[in-house]
Design brief:
alpha/beta, Spore Coat Polysaccharide Biosynthesis Protein SpsA, Chain A, seven-stranded mixed beta sheet, two-stranded antiparallel ribbon, 9 strands, 20% strand, binds guanosine-5'-triphosphate, binds L-phospholactate, phospholactate guanylyltransferase activity
Length: 211
């Protein structure tokens, strides 16, 4: 039995997924974000991680959580300070909107590099595993480039995980098609229940909502 690796899951349940405002009401965005974090936590547990939610307000979930209402980067860096990662005590940081994440994909983070990075498709950093004690995050913008540079500046060894399932964070309407195409958990069930269906035609598959 391998040791569990601590995993932090940043989650902002207050006004989540504003980029889906054209598609979902505020209450629906909260419910959908909730379904996604359910899937991520379940997949992490099966993959042998010990997840902790880093949340802006209490979630009421039966999982360890740290409540910190500071902005994302500050809150994650405070958690890194508190954890004090090292070669034998890594900390994974996995975003709560990776609705396609499977245990198998998440297990790929468990490499031996000082910093393991799973880039997001839009230039973000969807998941990290940090062993280097001085590595700190700087989210937003092309954060994957910032994180690669920061790791290089520290002389840390880096491994990038090239995974469709970890690269697909669910931010915009077109990402909902990915959940219907490849998801199999609570987030996909929520979309189906809410009336979303795949729409095929010329070009990229999209979603429509049957009401
Ligand atoms: N703890 C914490 N988590 C955050 C914060 N902002 C975003 N997150 C989480 O970080 C991850 C990536 O954030 P985004 O993709 O920007 O998600 P979002 O803020 O819900 O979506 P948008 O409003 O569309 O930007 C998601 O899991 C969010 O729940 C924050 O200020 N604190
Ligand atoms: C937090 C941010 O997420 P995105 O805006 O790329 O979804 C990032 O990964 O830097």
């Amino acid at each position: 039995m391998t040791d569990h690796v601590d995993a932090l899951v940043p989650f902002s349940p207050d006004r989540p997924k504003t980029r889906l405002s054209d598609t979902l009401s505020p209450a629906e965005r909260r419910d959908f974000a909730d379904a996604m974090v359910t899937d991520v936590l379940a997949a992490l547990e099966v993959a042998g991680f010990a997840p902790r939610v880093l949340t802006t307000e209490p979630t009421g979930r039966d999982v360890p959580e740290t409540v910190d209402d500071r902005p994302l980067t500050e809150a994650v860096n405070a958690a890194l300070d508190a954890h004090d990662p090292g070669p034998e005590s890594p900390l994974a940081i996995v975003m709560a909107d990776l609705a396609l994440a499977t245990p198998r994909a998440l297990a790929r983070l468990r490499g031996s590099a000082d910093v393991v990075i799973a880039p997001g498709r839009g230039g973000g950093t969807n998941a990290l595993l940090v062993r280097h004690p001085e590595f700190r995050v700087d989210y937003h913008g092309a954060s994957v480039l910032d994180h690669l540079r920061a790791a290089r500046d520290l002389g840390a060894s880096v491994r990038e995980v090239d995974s469709r399932r970890l690269a697909t964070d669910i931010d915009e309407r077109e990402d909902l098609a990915e959940v219907l195409l490849a998801g199999d958990g609570a987030a996909r069930d929520w979309l189906v229940e809410a009336g979303f269906r795949l729409a095929t035609g010329d070009g990229r598959v999209t979603v429509v909502r049957e009401v």
